[in-house]
Design a protein that fits this description.
Helices cover 27% and strands 25% of the residues. By secondary structure, it is an alpha+beta fold. The longest helix has 17 residues.
Length: 558
């Protein structure tokens, strides 16, 4: 590929490397120049432009990305059409992500022009979730490079695959002592039922016995007659040694201890055993908490049909220190159905109650954008996305807003205190959210350039199990809008006051923030002032140029 400043007269068939203004219109980067385009450029006085010209042995960016993706993808993985040199891989089923990380590393070492990014190995994924992304950096690469990348990936099993969860038949035995708090029995059983439900399994038998090796051995033998896949043993006291009550009872019942302990915290005191075809796990006390722990590492792999032995447990130390926020916006409930690896239910909140003071006499929401107004375009983009519900908050000129959206599939909620600031509109919408909603997308009514695919990128990245709880779009390193929040932050968002956004909440939970880099300034561009709208009109209703970009994550008072 030839890349650089190329004389215009030699640009027939070349690809623009950067956007340029021609006849008061923006010709976007990636445009393949025709002979007519060349004539126009010459007429307009262009002598040269930065462009790329493909040579005989070159493969276009999209074709190259798809070629690599086809070899990368394995079982239960969907490949979607490449766009701008990026080809994404998605899960077809709920399960665990299987990675051959050494081959992903080998591919990334071939050449800087081709990269692959993935989730962590053994991530819990749901159907439709983004797993990996192949990106070809230049507009084209040589066929030899594509062949080299394919060769690195082609030997053996595909590098990216999903092991779907398979229903397990489970039995649970809890032990008790005279001094043991009986409420802990209920709590332990509830937490384990919820964990089983998440991976499509269920606890079929629940038993309680005294914390004594003989009583427990008898109970284990009773459950073994039911031909279960897995027996869970949760003791009144933690296992301290291979000679303790639980491991002794397992051995006395005819089982064999395979490994004790694991390099994961919390969850160190886990016991791995087996009796015939039935696995037996001696559980650490931390399973009574919804917090992720070492048991989850082992249980999820067994539920995905993967074998777990002593050597594999010993390799869980890297990443084995598990953390969570020092404070939470609402009381922890559990790894409940809200966190299941099913399709997320996202509600979009459109803040359309403001007085549009910075625009002057006109309400910015009603300004024309070709065949739609600003607010109509904002809602149309949401309707074309994967959000489950759209809630529009009205206030100033509420009847006009309703009239503008009379054909849209939205729920209106009026904020009588809109003059007190943006936070009042946010609270008004949050108060009416259905309980089944798992995430909240907070949208600004003056950002019509946030396209449906931008919204879908946020939804696809949103993953509660993988701790991607706050998803923020970025362009050129700048954070923008809309922001997608896990519903656990609702209570803290309800406490925001004044005409400000929730930027400070994001700062409190940076470890759970995922930035989604987009190649479009729409996520950092609003139509908030006469100047911003004039630039849009001057560009003949094209997306604003970079010079018109205004960060809007934390809005100024209007």
């Amino acid at each position: 590929m030839i890349f650089g400043r190329i004389p215009v007269k030699e640009c027939d068939g070349a690809i623009l490397a950067h956007s340029i203004m021609v006849l008061n219109q923006k010709w976007k980067k990636g445009r393949q120049l025709s002979s007519h385009d060349v004539s126009v450029l010459v007429h307009e006085g262009y002598e040269s432009v930065y462009a790329a010209k493909l040579e005989d042995n070159d493969v276009g960016e999209d074709a190259a990305a798809e070629a690599v993706a086809r070899v990368l993808a394995g079982y239960a993985v969907e490949i979607r059409k490449a766009i701008t040199g990026r080809c994404n891989l998605y899960a077809k089923d709920r399960g665990l992500l299987r990675l051959r990380t050494e081959r992903v590393d080998a591919l990334n070492a071939v050449d800087e022009a081709v990269t692959v990014a993935t989730l962590d190995a053994y991530s819990k994924v749901y159907s439709g979730q983004l797993l990996a992304s192949v990106k070809v950096m230049p507009f084209a690469v040589s066929r030899n490079l594509v062949d080299q990348c394919v060769s690195v990936l082609a030997s053996g099993m595909p590098a990216v695959g999903v092991s779907p969860f398979q229903p397990l038949s489970l039995g649970l035995i809890q032990t008790r002592t005279d001094w043991f708090n009986q409420k802990l029995l209920q709590k332990g059983a509830q937490m384990l039922r919820e964990r089983a439900e998440i991976v499509g399994s269920s606890i079929e038998i629940e038993k309680i016995c005294d914390h004594h090796e003989d009583r427990l051995a008898d109970m284990i033998q009773e459950l073994l007659t039911n031909n279960l896949d897995l027996i869970l043993v949760l003791g009144a006291t933690a296992i301290q040694d291979r000679g303790d009550v639980i491991p002794t009872a397992i051995v006395n019942s005819g089982g064999k201890i395979e490994h004790f302990g694991m390099p994961v915290d919390p969850g160190n005191l886990l016991l791995l055993a087996k009796s015939g075809r039935t696995r037996i796990l001696g559980l650490p006390g931390c399973v009574r908490s919804p917090k992720r722990n070492g048991f989850d590492f082992v249980f999820e792999r067994l539920a995905a049909g993967l074998d777990v032995d002593a050597e594999e447990i010993k390799q869980m130390g890297v990443g084995g220190i598990l953390t969570e926020p020092s404070r939470r916006p609402e009381r922890r409930t559990a790894i409940t159905t809200k966190s299941k690896d099913t399709e997320q239910k996202i509600a979009a909140i459109v803040l359309a109650a403001g007085q549009s003071r910075r625009m002057g006499r006109e309400n910015k929401l009603f300004l024309p954008l070709e065949d739609r107004s600003v607010i109509q375009q904002v809602v149309a983009n949401l309707e074309g996305s994967r959000v489950s519900q759209i809630i529009v908050v009205t206030g100033h000129e509420q009847e006009m807003v309703r009239k503008e959206l009379d054909q849209a599939s939205v729920t209106f909620v009026n904020n009588p205190e809109y003059s007190k600031g943006l936070s009042t509109s946010l609270r008004t919408a949050l108060a009416v959210l259905p309980k089944e909603i798992t995430g909240v997308l907070v949208c600004l009514g003056d950002m019509p350039f946030v396209r449906s695919q931008h919204i879908d990128a946020l939804v696809e990245s949103f993953n509660l199990v993988a701790e991607r709880q706050i998803c923020v779009p970025t362009f050129d390193g700048k954070r923008g809008n809309p922001v997608l929040w896990d519903r656990r932050y609702i209570q803290e968002m309800m406490e925001v006051r004044g005409d400000v956004g929730a930027k400070h909440i994001i700062g409190d939970y940076e470890e759970f923030v995922t930035e989604i880099e987009l190649d479009d300034p729409g996520v950092v561009t609003d139509i908030d002032t006469p100047e911003a709208y004039s630039k849009f009109v001057a560009n003949d209703h094209e997306h604003p140029t970079d010079s018109a970009i205004a960060p809007v994550l934390e809005k100024e008072p209007k």
